[in-house]
Design a protein that fits this description.
The structure holds two protein chains of two kinds. By secondary structure, chain A is mainly alpha-helical. Chain A has 13 helices and no strands. Helices cover 79% and strands 0% of the residues of chain A. The radius of gyration of chain B is 25 Å and the shape is elongated. Classes of the chains: A mainly alpha, B alpha/beta.
Amino acid sequence: MSTIAAIFKKEFASYFISPIAYVFIIVFLIGGNFMFFQPFFLINQAEMRNYFSLLPWIFLFFVPAITMRSWAEEKKSKTMELLLTWPLSDAQAVLGKFFASLAFLSVAILLSITVPITLFIIGSPDPGPIIGGYVGAILMGAAYLAIGLWISSHTENQIVAFILAFVTIFLLMIIGHPLVTAKVPSVLIPIFSYLGLFTHFESIERGVVDSRNVVYYLSMTGIFLFLNAQSLGRRKSE
Amino acid sequence: MDMESKTSRLMLEVRGLNKKFGHVHAVNNLNFEVRRGEVFGFLGPNGAGKSTTMRIITCFIPPTSGSALVDGMDTATHDLAVRRKIGYLPESTPLYSDMTVKEYLAFVGQIRGLRGSKLKSRIDDMFSVCALTKMADRQIGKLSKGFKQRVGLAQAMIHDPDLLILDEPMSGLDPNQIIEIRRLIKRMGEEKTVIYCSHILSEVSATCDRILIINEGRIVATGTPSDLTSGHRGGGSKYALRVKGDGPSIKNSLASVSGVSVIYIDDVKDGWCGIRINTNIKDDIGEALFRAVVDGGFSLSELTRTQTSLEDVFTQLTRSEK
């Protein structure tokens, strides 16, 4: 446990060393706020549903940017060889990095608290859906992050890691979208819409944190973290 | 001696180790052992399989077949226990360049399971042993190569490991830094078992108790530095002479001396020939050479005997047979 904590601390601090992190947080906040508040006064409703419905799209850019460096950098600078000859398991290394990225994403999400504060000042929104939406956003973010980390472990090029993570997440998002499910054989529709990252966020957008959605996001996260540990172990069978 | 006390004397036992990458046979049936407390030189030209062997011993990659036992524990089955025993400095000294020296050592110490005051005192020890005190708050990426190397060494030693593995620790250092790091390695070698990989012979012969030379994945020689130089292979020595006279006829009279295997005439200047002779026996044949020159009616201005240097042994053994 303390080994994971050591990795977590080091990784979390490393996000703030590079200026890119600050740039991304600022873009995330400005972009999110702008897109939310632009039509806000036309809709004239004190709720955050529209904000949460933007998040899957914002995360599509933001999460790969968080995870692209994680393993790719270790591979490129060969620090991986030291990391993986220190007395820690592959799983500990993966979890340390995952929790650090999740903490970083959570910081960014928490900084968007200006949005609900504004709502409470100018209106009287229902706090339930807002809290539910935030919980859902972190769950969905965790799944995105696990995918991004797994992809980062396959390349030493950060840009490649970014693009591949973007594409993978995008595909997983849209397979449950009506545009896709309208074209696939009807037997596959339930599978596609179950697998789609998007489908599960729709109810969360409304502020309903359903256990099925929680299970879905947690298992996606678990599967990709497992794959990540496997891909580190792959050096052993080459 | 019974088996048990024999094993406990061995820090590392490598048995029938093989590693293949596709069609490349990087490590080919290696067998060797390193005794406790020894400074062991692992030598070979670039690409000989040194780093691959070290990566297997440090549990970074598994062997294709064969085994490596560290302090009696198999790298395949006691992965984490083996890694705890070892301090490792990989070839390119990979470090996290955005951390400060102090942060980095604290991080490695924590992963190594050190806590609180113990961690603090080990970091301080490393600062003084590796002379890093002044650099404590500097960013690693901004340090000179020599200091980075010392951070790498500090990282490898922070948990006071039984076995220290250093892969090319001198690469890229200037002569002063080399002397410093060499001194550091010698000091560590007084208490610890050290495996020192290098392709530079003079380095290894100056610091190591025993040397193993590998080439293309196979062991080509092993022994103490003096074993290897004095007659490990052929046992000859070399003579350099300067003789006045006609080259071919000098060659003829020298060839009759027993023990002479090869005669080279290097340069001829003002009637003086520079001659090099390799012998194939251990005995000193200087006197016989002198007689042969004088009896042939030539003048002699120089006659020196040089022992085969490790460099000669090394080039001879590792020259590709293609």
